[in-house]
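User: My instructor asked us to take a sequence, write out its structure as tokens, and then describe one feature of it. I'm not sure where to start. Here is the sequence I was given:
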Amino acid sequence: MLKDDGLSKAMELCGFMIGDRQESRLMSLLSVILKLQTDPPIPLAFAEIYEQMLREDPETKLTKAWVHRVLKSLVGAQLVRVENPTSHRKRYIADVNTVMAGLEQLKSERISALEVQKGEIDKTLSDVSDLDCGELAQRFIRSVTGAQQKISSRVVRGVEELHRVLRYNMLDVAKKGDTIRVTALWLGPFVEGAMERTMKFIEAAQRGVDVRYMISTDVFRFEDEDLGASFNIEEVMKLMGNLNEFRKSGMKFDIRIYAGPKTYNQVSLNNDNMALIIAEDPVTATWITRDFNPDLIDNAVKAFDRDWKKSKSFLELTPKDLQAFGGEPGGLISKITKTNGEDQSDVRGE
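Assistant: Let's start with the prediction itself. The structure tokens for your sequence are:
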């Protein structure tokens, strides 16, 4: 109907489906009215419109009832306006103003429909993303065979997938007396959404789990511009301020800085299972159980405990420590650790 492909595409985006059979009828009748219309527009009687339709397409048998129905649809879409809606013999006007009003209505309806679709797609995407394929595979095997099989190893790709594996195998199942060890040698990929993930570790600590977070001195090379838009320094400062309260309440959650050589970049639950991070971009990890490789887990835990003794808690960092670790005065880490300054004497018993 339209020779301009760009115009056709824009009209379809707006909700006017040019290629659709029903819409083609609307377009045909609208075109007839627009061509009949003078400038300024003069209201047209139904008979004028109907006769022009017959002249333009004499081979097609058009009934007045059909034209009335299509005309009513155009009026309902606001593409055509009735001069006097209460009059028995109605007259019709179509010009740039009515077409604009109609397109505005179609556009609004189209946006509403797309928002509904987007919501459904976002929900489906979230549901798919939340699936843990390891847990799903176990359920599938149990359903088919009736037997329970445990996964001994798997490759995990992406920060969110890694966190799901950690939650399912460690954070959600760890109980009082257990120890979760975390080594963060690469911070870059984990900055986005860090607070939400950290809260899961805090929840484990609240259940009596001993959570030990050991961070590389690379953290001192981070500045505000290195962080994602979602990073909220106020939330981080609040968390660091809460470390004192955690310790006073007996909750075992500590974050320490380690300045020695890098070893295993890992998250482990006791000596039972471990996620060993092997690549930063994209984040790739291998999750293993003790059944798969007990020596690797034992060596990683042993190395962590050795380095943990040499590391220093965030709560106990002094300005001299910050300088030694490479922190700039007034830098990001200085701002965060400043939160603890007034309370450190209480923690040390001074």
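For the description part of your assignment, you could build on this observation: DSSP finds 13 helices and eleven strands in the chain. Try explaining in your own words what that tells you about the chain.
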